[in-house]
């Protein structure tokens, strides 16, 4: 009689799907941050860019606040904008998104 392989340590299909979704989310976030950083570094009118980014931030926060979103997301979203704010300041014009 042949013993059946022990699959207790094998990840379940649901766990694999969750891990894949998390990986896709992280890669997407990293790509978007790179794109926005490039835009900040090359935009010809940093003042206009600052105003538009602030408006988008406020609109997105309002949308997230209306959704059944986890509180962690509401805490993390402004922190992402803080990193972009540092990029804008590093550009040398001294302006920020606040």
SSE map:
Layout: H1 13-42, H2 46-66, H3 71-93
Helix pairs in contact: 1-3, 2-3
Tally of alpha and pi helices: 3
Please state the structural category: mainly alpha
Shape: extended
**Could you tell me the mean pLDDT?**
80
Poorly predicted regions are none
Name a few traits of the molecule.
98 residues; mainly alpha; 76% helix; extended
Task: Give a written overview of the molecule.
The chain has 98 residues and is an all-alpha fold. Helix content is 76%, strand content 0%. It has helices at residues 13-42, 46-66, 71-93. The chain is extended and about 55 Å long. The chain starts with 12 loop residues before the first helix and ends in a 5-residue tail after the last helix.
Q: Can you summarize this structure?
A:
The chain has helices at residues 13-42, 46-66, 71-93.
